[in-house]
Specification:
The chain is an alpha/beta fold and 587 residues long. The protein has three domains: 88 residues, Phosphohistidine domain (Glucose Oxidase, domain 1), CATH 3.50.30; 109 residues, PtsI, HPr-binding domain (Enzyme I, Chain A, domain 2), CATH 1.10.274; 253 residues, Phosphoenolpyruvate-binding domains (TIM Barrel, Alpha-Beta Barrel). Helices cover 47% and strands 14% of the residues. It is built from 24 helices and 16 strands. Strands 1-8-7-3-4-5-6-2 form an eight-stranded mixed sheet. The chain has an eight-stranded parallel beta barrel with strand order 9-10-11-12-13-14-15-16. Strand 7 and strand 8 form a beta hairpin. The longest helix has 29 residues. It is globular and about 75 Å long.
Length: 587
């Protein structure tokens, strides 16, 4: 294959699925649906609702067929993606709102359904959590299918892909991704999307590279153009030169060799060269991630984000529904510990089941979120506490509270926990009376008053994402200042050291469950500062374990001491990076 004689164009996106691919473009352009708008005669309105209900049944059948196809071509685990789609079709709030809109307006059902679906898509698209934002993609995908059925149209598909090509699209829905012939797709590149989109999940399952967020690439390439896709660094190169091809050939060989080493090391203990065992746990959001925790040999779960249960449905989950989900994870991982974080939602993550519970706020990150919202709604909070306590009867559970700012909040939370215990005793429902409770340290006031909090809990877990954001007064979502978010800042390193020291003075273990814990570059610093445990996305465990096994804890302590003495964040990061490069033998 000869590279194009045209000028090479390098475009930076976000790495989504590892690997390197080189090939010609298959440009997949989806057209927007044109939805007619008209008034339905009163005597035909019963039939119009029946037409809508029939379209829902047909769409369910279509999705079941896709699910069966994915189970056959990929695996049952990947097919679970479409359970979320079936849930959308069974969502009584979505269906009920559509019918109410129709009865009120008299407009054709396509118009009403599209209006309601767009409201839901918009609500989820504005959620701050990247994973949960992808629910907007689920609703969009399902809505498009329902509308195609209502309009008597055939949905676009990627089944036209017959030769080996690199798929380039604005975005790819889960059902579109499911139709891709894995033998024909070399890679997936999208203008939009995120690293947690279902298309990316499918790409990873197919073990092909994927890069997302390349903005307007679809306007810069045409069918047949040559493309180099770097799924490691998120780079896409249009019309690569022979020199670039040669360089990437060497990179691909080195990366594959290194990944093979990582997975081999992942089977071994996370122990430093001077014989110190390091506890590495996993961060998860759903019960079906138990398999990942086991696959990547995590020492249990250091952070289970329970808000997924609340944000993935239009009804607040009952105590029994929560208990079922928690029990599945706890029993599935027993005897390993599962650390369950209580509900962390706020103005930036509205509750679909009760959007008025929090309401809009001018500054949601400093508003009624997490523990504040729970303390304002004790019945909601106690239902969750009872569910967690009940799950503790099936394995080892630690409970932790998010966004604690001081002892008054911790006292109130623990008082409600005591009430929940008493209520379960009255019901004769079993629970672990020795379940430990911990405090997340992610607000500067909690870091400063850590000694006071340590008297009232059993462990600390540092949420570095919010801690750094609040400490440096930087909104990570603001592109204009996001570059100022710096874990190497002297204030950050000093505060981390202070939290560890205050926790250890009270004989508490201190863990980190924020993004820093899963970044191998910062792992030696955290361990050198005295952090006892690290918790991260399961897929990051092999790289962190590799680094742990390549270093001495005594050297990491010296690194932390040197970092604490620095005043310039750039020089601090240079020290940290040099330590990492030396141990990882980065070429």
């Amino acid at each position: 294959m000869e590279p194009s004689a045209q000028n090479e164009l390098v475009i930076q996106g976000s790495a989504a699925s590892k690997g390197i691919a080189y090939g010609q473009v298959f440009l997949y352009l989806q057209s927007e649906l044109e939805i007619p708008r008209y008034t339905v005669d009163p005597d035909k309105r019963v039939a119009e609702i029946a037409r809508f209900e029939h379209a829902l049944v047909v769409t369910r059948q279509q999705i079941s067929q896709i699910q069966a196809q994915v189970t056959k071509n990929l695996s049952e685990e990947e097919a679970l993606i479409f359970d979320a789609h079936q849930m959308v079709l069974e969502d009584q709030a979505l269906i009920g709102e559509t019918i109410r809109d129709f009865q009120k307006s008299g407009l054709n059902i396509e118009t009403c359904f599209n209006t309601v679906a767009q409201r839901y898509i918009q609500a989820f698209a504005e959620i701050d959590d990247e994973y949960l934002r992808e629910r907007a993609a689920d609703i969009k995908d399902v809505a498009k299918r329902v509308l195609h059925v209502l309009l008597g149209q055939t949905a676009n598909s990627l089944t036209e892909l017959v030769e080996q090509r690199i798929i380039v699209a604005h975005d790819i829905s889960p059902s579109e991704a499911a139709g891709i012939d894995r033998s024909a797709a070399l890679a997936i590149v999208t203008d939009a999307g995120s690293r947690t989109s279902h298309a990316v999940i499918v790409a990873r399952s197919m073990k092909i590279p994927a890069v997302v967020g390349v903005r307007d690439l679809t306007t810069k390439v045409k069918n047949g153009d040559w493309l180099m896709v770097d799924g490691y660094d998120g780079v896409v190169i249009v019309n690569p030169t022979e020199q670039t091809l040669f360089r990437y050939g060497k990179i691909q060989k080195a990366k594959k060799s290194f990944e093979s080493r990582l997975m081999t090391v992942n089977e071994l203990a996370a122990e430093t060269l001077d014989g110190v065992k390091i506890t590495l746990r996993a961060n998860i959001e759903k019960p079906d991630e138990v398999a990942l925790v086991k696959q990547y040999r995590a020492d249990g779960v250091g952070l289970y984000r329970t808000e997924f249960l609340f944000l993935s449905t239009n009804h607040l989950p009952t105590e029994d529904q929560q208990y079922a989900a928690y029990r599945e994870i706890v029993a599935g991982l027993a005897p390993a510990t599962v650390t369950i974080r209580t509900l962390d939602v706020g103005g930036d993550k509205p509750l679909p089941g009760d959007p008025h519970l929090i309401g809009p706020e001018a500054n949601p990150f400093m508003g009624l979120r997490a523990i504040r919202m729970c303390l304002e709604n004790p019945a909601l909070f106690k239902a969750q506490l009872r569910a967690i306590l009940r799950a503790s009867a099936h394995g080892k559970v630690d409970l932790m509270y998010p966004m604690i700012s001081g002892t008054e909040e911790l006292d109130r939370a623990n008082a409600l926990l005591d009430e929940a215990r008493a209520e379960l005793k009255e019901r004769n429902q079993p629970f672990d009376a020795t379940m430990r409770t911990g405090t997340m340290i992610e607000i500067p006031s909690a870091a400063i008053a850590g000694d006071l909090l340590a008297e009232k809990c059993d462990f600390f877990s540092i949420g570095t994402n919010d801690l750094i954001q609040y400490l440096l007064a930087i909104d990570r979502g603001n592109n204009r200042i996001a570059h100022l978010y710096d874990p190497s800042h002297p204030a950050v390193i000093r505060v981390l050291k202070q939290i560890v020291d205050l926790g250890h003075a009270a004989k508490l273990k201190v863990s980190v469950c924020g993004e820093m814990a899963g970044d191998p570059v910062f792992v030696p610093l955290l361990l050198g500062l005295g952090v006892d445990e690290l918790s991260m996305t399961p897929t990051l465990l092999p790289a962190v374990k590799f680094l742990v096994r390549a270093m001495k804890l005594s050297d990491a302590r010296k690194l932390a001491k040197d970092a604490l003495a620095q005043t310039d964040p750039k020089k601090t990061f240079a020290l940290i990076e040099a330590f990492y490069n030396e141990r990882m033998k980065v070429e």
